[in-house]
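Onboarding guide, step 5: your first structure request.
Type a short instruction followed by the sequence, for example:

Predict the 3D structure of this protein.
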Amino acid sequence: MSSSERTYHHGDLRRAVLAAALDVIAADGPDALSLRDLARRAGVSHAAPAHHFKDRTGLLTAVAAEGYALFSDALTGAPDLQERGVAYVRFAAAHPAHFQVMFRPELHRADDPALLAAKARATEALRTGVSALPGTPRGEDARLAGVAAWSLAHGFATLLLSGNLSDALEGRAPEEAFRTAAGMLFRPGSRPGG
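The system replies with structure tokens like these:
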């Protein structure tokens, strides 16, 4: 067996390339990804990643789909909307590379079946949390309530990952700080018209 054949036959090439991609994204962002570099990091031939992902967009689509699947699992386990927000923040802190790719649709294939299914599960988990709020309006107002909750959790997570909350947290755990902030905004009677 030649050296190039040994390099190509990797135990779990797909997982190895995904793991290397997540490392690169966490350190340098998704724009730093190169299939050739990832192949080198995984110890395989430069053409091997294309076998599983076709191209860079395919790889980023797989990262986003995996991220949304993990994300929906994290959200589904939370008992109410506030705790789903806490799970959102916790997910972003634990999976910063996934988080960076998931919310940048220009990086992945919007019609990918695995991505669509995982994204739909996450969206349903968020909607269920909003609809369970007492006194939640219906129709367009319910949709805006969902956008408000999403904006709070996503904004907090983004500020956390970019290092902009260091002073505001004052040594508190991010999840606890989010829980307090959400409680200030979403306590009963604090909604407009409530």
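Each response can be followed by summary notes, for example: The chain has two domains: 1-53, 56-186.
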